[in-house]
């Protein structure tokens, strides 16, 4: 495993930094895992990825929480339902293919991208309020839906969380990024509830890659807090365009 570690440690560091700053590190990490870990099954690759991601997200949450007040009252029901949704999504993989959802996700992502592009002030200021009962219900519903998406399909969960926190709860991009890490932690932990008992986590890889993700998370979260909302908004748009192109290409290739 020494050869694989030498290649994947810097990848895991970069992935951790991107996840902490904006989300979407899987666009880099997952292809790298599949390229290097050729003897691993998809479930084993997911086990390594999710285990290291949980370690990275935990550190990024700590970094953000030390610098800003997070709406834990809103986050708690959101994380609980996201955990349940993600576990359900992983189990559904055994029952039906996820490819049929890709065209729907492409349309939703395109709408989200256009909406953000033409509203330059979106997420610039934090106008959030003390969460109401309706907000808690809304957060729980969003957590369940995005958790299921993360377990069933995966790529882009952080981008959707970021946009929805800004759009529905009026967070600025920085606070929305921090909150997205909390929910991402829950969804990734849920997949491990399924993968760990199944023996799908190669700890000799997952643990050192998790340490690298922790180091990357420290760098990424500090860069995000230093860069501010406008910087995160630009990264968000770049990530959304990249994800849209990736999903569109994979869908088109499947039809040809």
UniProtKB/TrEMBL annotation:
Keywords: Cell membrane, Membrane, Transmembrane, Transmembrane helix, Transport. Pfam families: TauE. Its main location: membrane. The keyword Cytoplasm does not apply. It is a multi-pass membrane protein. The keyword Protein transport does not apply. It is found in: Cell membrane. The chain crosses the membrane at residues 70-88, 100-118, 139-169, 189-219, 231-249. InterPro entries: TM_pro_TauE-like, TSUP. Belongs to the 4-toluene sulfonate uptake permease (TSUP) (TC 2.A.102) family. PANTHER family: MEMBRANE TRANSPORTER PROTEIN YFCA-RELATED, TRANSMEMBRANE PROTEIN YFCA. This is Probable membrane transporter protein.
